[in-house]
Amino acid sequence: MAANDSHLDWVLVIAPYRRDAEHLEILLAEEDVIARRAEGLEQLRALLAQTPGVVVATQEALDPEVQKAIGRHLVEQPEWSEMPILILLDRMVPPTRVQAELSTVWPRSRQLYYQRPVTALELLSGVQSSLLARLRQRDVRDHIERERELRRELNHRVKNILSSISSIFQMTRRRAVSLDEFADDFAGRLAALANVHSAVFQANGDAAEFSHIAELTFSPYRAKGADRISFAGPEILLSAEAATTLALCFHELATNALKYGALLKPEGRISLKWSVSQDGNLDLEWLERGGPPVSEPKRSGYGTRYIRSALYNLFGTPPTILFHPQGLRCTQVGPLARVSPKDL
């Protein structure tokens, strides 16, 4: 929503002679319509800059300088805006002559003419109808702004997805020793990425619940055998970027466990736990047990390097990865605020 929405809900009165402005203000006030009187050219320019909903002007008030000031405002108003101008004519003045003159000065403007004396009901009806039209214009403006924001968000998300796919491809290519292994690993990582994006989409594109991300990420490994990956922790909402990063890290850890760790043996088990400390940190622990003896590799694989880099970028602190003989242990501590949706 744009700022100053209420500025479309009031009437600018230009009636410097007799008591016309005072009568108009009283008439509109009885219907709870705010009216502001322009007394002089400078005040007129200042009030036009505040975006009135409707202008009500007497014919004799529209001297060339006033016409020019209103014309400038009409030209500078945004595309969604079409400010109605209600003009009160003297009975002896032909409306066609005034309309032709003002249409030249104010091309494509919305002009409504009333010949005096005009009944209060008729004038109020015209003002209220014009204000309602302005509110509908505001709705159009809001719709346009939402569409623009959605296009920007879509462009951002597509770029992020393509970047993630490119990283996954490079990571998988460097590790693969055969085309079949490459195809399996790449398909698994894309599935993890697709699952987490589905979860974020189901949450209106802004956030996803931690346990839901874990469930989607680990479901392919459960399909291959027993349910040997457990997870537990409080309900936490993750931003779309954090959910994607954590899902890919968990997928990488699970893939490694399937090839070399706890999931290589039927009795192997994995637990993922998370908690929030009193100082606002999110604590993560990935723990493997029951697999073959673990020893630290002589050189880190690309998957391990990805996990270290991704978690560091996400939390601002590096993870701890320990290769205990009993099983791999990966822990991470970092501010919860860094992974939470920004609008919470």
| Helical residue percent band | 40-55%
Shape: rod-shaped
Strand order of the largest sheet: 2-1-3-4-5
The helix/strand class is alpha/beta
The main β sheet shows up as: 5 strands, parallel
Question: What amount of the residues lies in strands?
Answer: 15-25%
N-to-C SSE string, H for helix and E for strand: EHEHEHEHEHHEHEEHEEHEE
N- to C-terminal distance: 18 Å
* DSSP strand tally: 12
**Rounded radius of gyration (Å):** 33 Å
Low-confidence stretches: 1-5
**Mean pLDDT over the residues:** 85
Total DSSP helices:
9
Protein name: histidine kinase
Organism: Rhizobium dioscoreae
Keywords: ATP-binding, Kinase, Nucleotide-binding, Phosphoprotein, Transferase
EC number: 2.7.13.3
Question: How does this structure look, described?
Answer:
The chain is α/β, with parallel strands linked by helices and 344 residues long. Helices cover 49% and strands 19% of the residues. The protein has a five-stranded parallel sheet, sandwiched between helices. It has a five-stranded mixed sheet with strand order 7-9-10-12-11, covered by helices on one side. Strands 6-8 form a two-stranded antiparallel ribbon. The protein is rod-shaped, with a radius of gyration of 33 Å. It starts with 9 loop residues before the first strand and ends in a 9-residue tail after the last strand. Residues 1-5 have low confidence and may be disordered. It comes from Rhizobium dioscoreae. GO terms for molecular function: kinase activity. Its EC number is 2.7.13.3.
